[in-house]
Specification:
The chain is about 0% helix and about 60% strand. The protein is mainly beta.
Length: about 100
């Protein structure tokens, strides 16, 4: 079984999805895939068919303070949904479903 990744970005400062946010999936410092969030702040299939391992999701959010957010994650087998909540004052993430 392979690994797949999806994501979404929510602008908690405005209470709305964040469209047009660039997201990169990186492994061993190489950008494997780049996507941009849709009008609902989502990228339904950022990547599919990945090998298990350690990856980084790099977000370029619409925040005057957090200009780049990088999350390093260990992906085993199956699907992972990794959202980002961002505002001018903070950011957070979690493993979604």
């Amino acid at each position: 079984m392979s690994v797949s990744v999806s994501t979404h970005v929510l602008d908690t400062g405005s209470g709305r999805p964040a469209p047009g946010v660039r997201v990169e999936l990186v492994r061993d410092r190489d950008v494997m895939v780049t996507g941009e969030t849709d009008a609902d702040g989502r990228i339904a299939e950022l990547a599919t068919g990945l090998e298990p391992g350690r990856y980084a999701l790099v977000f370029w959010p619409p925040s005057p303070f957090f200009t780049r957010v990088e999350l390093e994650v260990d992906l085993e087998q199956g699907h992972y949904h990794v959202p980002l909540l961002v505002s001018p004052y903070g950011c957070a993430s979690y493993r979604g479903s």
